[in-house]
Amino acid sequence: MPFRLLRLEFRNISVFSDEFVIDFTASDRVVAGQHVSSVTNVVSSQNIVALVGINAAGKTSALRLVDLALSIVASRLSLDQIPSAPQFLSRGSIMVVDFFQDGMFYRLESEFTSNGDRLVYADERLYGKRMSLVRSRARLFEYSEDMLIHSRMDLVSQLRGFMKDDDSIVMALTAPSCPISGVLSHLCERFSFLDGAIEPAYLHVFDRSLDEVCLEDGMVRVRFNNDGSARRVRDDRISDLLSSGTIKGTQLFHVAADVLAGGGYLLVDEIEDNLNKRLVQLLIDFFQDGEVNTKGAVLVFSTHYAEIVDSVKRKDNIYVMRKSRDGGCSTVRYSDVIGRNDVRKSEVLLSNLIEGTAPSYEDVQAVKDFMCRRISG
């Protein structure tokens, strides 16, 4: 397994009231081969991470923070190559990323600052330990000073002239080694990433009337069943011929196949938007099914709809996003609050048993009272 993201933490960022933390490892009991991927004999990585919450609870921001961390640690991008970095990071922001690569566990601690109007690194420390030193999951995220591999100050002095102030010291490790598909917007109205014909199996599961969809030189050719001649439109006008669900769905399945083949990461915002619930379940099942997901690929998605997370087999890979009255967002791991697995997750969330997962009774009643007054004049 070349790369696995194990844990992510951000501190001192404006969107979240406290620190933002997502643990990508399994904390509940693991049955071999079921819905997770083995990193070592004591550490397993989630194949699904679900972010669920009501509107404006920070779900999209959370996805973009995951994308930001993967861009730095897995894709080895400079800060000026990551469009979302200035949106979340500022002077004093801190990122801590635990990951596994090539038989080693690593922790990267990064502090950010500004240099004029540029976002740069103030300091960084990279720790590492051999996998043989991790004999239990309880010790996974423990690092001592003798495990320090690089500090930014020392490494920059050695590589002065080669390392920019917006390059992470993680670049001192090996080159990027897994495909990353960042936050795919729920709008998905273009075929810009496709080249050539779309796989017929993708087309038919979304629209049985389609025979062919093919992108060539900025033009999309569409042929329907029993239609002798193809129709052609510019790629930015494809919605004239295909439904939003077909456009989004075929894109998602196309990208998912690449990510599954490479053991990478797929981040999808509002996974339910424009898609039939059964097709959303199918996509989720691809990543949970050990016969399909043989390389430990990971799907991280957000959803407004609690019913979607009933398709997620585990409960330690669901994060509930909430927003307080003071405007700050926070996360809570579902399994940290709900110990039982025999209750439908959607019932827990829609009942507001985990506070903040549904509008409060008082707020709902206030809307109803206002509507009644408004209608009665």
Can you give a write-up of this model?
- The structure is a single chain.
- A six-stranded antiparallel β-sheet has the order 2-1-6-7-8-9.
- The protein starts with a strand and ends with a helix.
- It has nine helices and 18 strands.
- It has two domains: 4-178 and 265-342, Rossmann fold; 188-262, no CATH class.
- By secondary structure, the chain is α+β, with helices and mostly antiparallel strands.
- Uncertain stretches: 186-193
* CATH-assigned fold name of the largest domain: Rossmann fold
Q: Strands across the major sheet, in which order?
A: 2-1-6-7-8-9
Whole-number radius of gyration?
23 Å
What is the SS-derived class? alpha+beta
Task: Give the SSE layout.
Elements: E1 4-11, E2 20-23, E3 36-38, E4 44-46, E5 48-53, H1 59-73, H2 85-88, E6 94-101, E7 104-115, E8 118-130, E9 148-151, H3 152-158, E10 180-184, E11 196-197, H4 200-206, E12 210-216, E13 219-224, E14 231-234, H5 244-262, E15 265-268, H6 277-288, E16 298-303, E17 318-323, E18 329-333, H7 334-337, H8 345-350, H9 361-376
Parallel strand pairs: 5-16, 5-17, 10-15, 15-16
Antiparallel strand pairs: 1-2, 1-6, 3-4, 6-7, 7-8, 8-9, 11-12, 12-13, 13-14, 17-18
